[in-house]
């Protein structure tokens, strides 16, 4: 088709607007998705639809901002504070997020949140339908927009719809707790291709579709009355070159130098997470304490730097988690620290990328121990930043990344003894062994990078569509 275009849809646009009084600024996202899709959405008539990150009540400012965005192929969907509260903070982050990360006791089932979720999904679908023409490809991102595929297909059956979920899809036993499970499955099955990070997520989705929606399936294909839906794994990668090159940046070098001054000849172990109960931060601190208790010879020898990026801390569970982390850090530091050594350096804020890169480049060990994570990109960024190929990654079996990164020291994050033992093993690992593992990890992360992920998904989507077009013309 001649003018066929691609429309990306995600909760957030890759550019965010920040408004204060009558003034506003635009901020480019440095996230993986923005990088991976960055070149695609700017081509031809392609566009990216999403929320610009702020409520803009003033009609005049809204118009100016919309015009500025559109000039960059960005279509803002404006959301009111109530919509953000119920669709985003509520249903997305207080219902789907905990449930899909296996924290069902944290999930809140509020019918009002669900009403908003449906309405806002319809708003996103309408934005797509405003510009979509038969033959266009629409790629919808993540759990905030699970109803959009079906809403778009129903109104415009001629388009091709892909959906990718960045967080885990839980076991049927957990998913079925959702009062609105049928509607969500139906929403997703409006897509031609549904992607997850891992084959386990695929299997869980297929099982939920079969047992809740009574679908028939054929291998990884759901067979509906008039069409089929392909479900597959597309493990997301990072912009490998960017993280590798960042290490050589002069700002990164300066930060690295400062870190070395702080560290002296001590070993550095790092962990970087958003504040979230799925990231296993308290369990990791407790495992570090166990390590210090049982390995007194390593005291004064290692510094653990934990960076937590603020997130959702007005929500009760997050505020409690933040307090628990504060308490654990101060208890461990008070118990084991000395005048010349503070075991844990804890930061609750975000750092510029040049500081992140300096941390990756300086760290002898990266501890990535979520209790549940769709993929986890921090561990891949650490690998890409290890220019001399030393360093040890300790990785949770519960992160999607564990399905690719076999040469990491893999642990069950709730097994504190195992995490403590892995820290010891990492500190004692001979350099040759570190390099052997890191080389293999780098090969995987470099090859299956963000560009591979985008082209792999798009190729599959084109292939699925092509097959369906052939079937319909027979
Ligand atoms: C979801 C899924 C999946 C962190 N601190 C700073 C900073 N970061 C950047 C990291 C990394 C990103 O944030 C975090 O990505 P993750 O993948 O670890 O986790 P989520 O945000 O939970 O993302 C996850 C991902 O989607 C992609 O599909 O892997 O499983 O939960 O890129 O570098 N960046 C800067 N300063 C910081 O202080 N600049």
Automatic annotation (TrEMBL):
GO terms for biological process: trehalose biosynthetic process. One of its GO terms (cellular component) is cytosol. It is an enzyme of class 2 (transferase). Pathway: Glycan biosynthesis; trehalose biosynthesis. Keywords: Glycosyltransferase, Transferase. Its EC number is 2.4.1.15. It catalyses: D-glucose 6-phosphate + UDP-alpha-D-glucose = alpha,alpha-trehalose 6-phosphate + UDP + H(+). GO terms for molecular function: alpha,alpha-trehalose-phosphate synthase (UDP-forming) activity; trehalose-phosphatase activity. In the C-terminal section; belongs to the trehalose phosphatase family. Homotetramer. This is Alpha,alpha-trehalose-phosphate synthase. It comes from Taibaiella chishuiensis. The chain holds residues 1 to 474 of 744 of the full protein.
């Amino acid at each position: 088709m001649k003018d066929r275009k691609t429309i990306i849809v995600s909760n957030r646009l890759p550019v965010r607007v920040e408004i204060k009084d009558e003034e506003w600024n635009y901020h480019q996202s440095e996230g993986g998705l923005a990088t991976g899709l960055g070149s695609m959405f700017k081509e031809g008539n392609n566009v990216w639809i999403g929320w610009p990150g702020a409520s803009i009540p003033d009609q005049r400012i809204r118009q100016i901002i919309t015009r500025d965005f559109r000039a960059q192929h960005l279509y803002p969907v404006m959301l009111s504070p109530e919509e953000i509260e119920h669709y985003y903070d509520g249903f997305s982050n207080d219902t789907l997020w905990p449930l899909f990360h296996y924290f069902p006791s944290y999930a809140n089932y509020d019918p009002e949140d669900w009403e908003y979720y449906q309405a806002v999904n319809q708003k996103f679908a309408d934005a797509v339908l405003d510009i979509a023409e038969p033959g266009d490809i629409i790629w919808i991102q993540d759990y905030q927009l699970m109803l959009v595929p079906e809403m778009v297909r129903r109104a415009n059956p001629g388009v091709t719809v892909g959906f990718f979920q960045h967080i885990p899809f839980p076991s049927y036993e957990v998913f079925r707790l959702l009062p609105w499970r049928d509607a969500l499955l139906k929403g997703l099955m409006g897509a031609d291709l549904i992607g997850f990070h891992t084959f386990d997520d695929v299997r869980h989705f297929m099982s939920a579709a079969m047992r809740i929606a009574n679908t028939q399936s054929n291998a990884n294909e759901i067979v509906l009355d008039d069409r089929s839906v392909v479900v597959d794994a597309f493990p997301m990668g990072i912009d490998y070159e960017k993280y590798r090159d960042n290490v050589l940046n002069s700002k990164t070098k300066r930060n690295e130098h400062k870190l070395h001054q702080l560290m002296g000849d001590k070993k550095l172990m790092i962990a970087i997470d958003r504040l979230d109960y799925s990231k296993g931060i308290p369990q990791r601190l407790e495992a570090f304490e166990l390590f210090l208790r049982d390995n007194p010879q390593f005291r004064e020898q290692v510094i653990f730097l934990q960076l937590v990026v603020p997130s959702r801390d007005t929500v009760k569970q997050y505020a409690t988690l933040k307090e628990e982390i504060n308490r654990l850090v101060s208890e461990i530091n008070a118990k084991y620290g000395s005048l010349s050594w503070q075991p844990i350096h804890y930061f609750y804020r975000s750092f510029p990328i040049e500081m992140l890169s300096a941390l990756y480049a300086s760290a002898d060990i990266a501890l990535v121990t979520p209790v549940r994570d769709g993929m986890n990109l921090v561990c891949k960024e650490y690998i890409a930043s290890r220019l001399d190929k030393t360093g040890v990654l300790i990785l949770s079996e519960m992160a999607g990344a564990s399905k690719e990164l076999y040469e990491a020291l893999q642990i069950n994050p709730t097994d504190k003894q195992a995490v403590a033992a892995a820290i010891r093993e990492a500190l004692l690992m001979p350099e040759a062994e570190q390099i052997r593992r890191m080389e293999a990890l780098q090969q995987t992360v470099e090859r299956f990078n963000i560009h591979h992920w985008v082209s792999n998904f798009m190729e599959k989507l084109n292939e699925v569509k092509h097959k369906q077009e052939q079937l319909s013309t027979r």
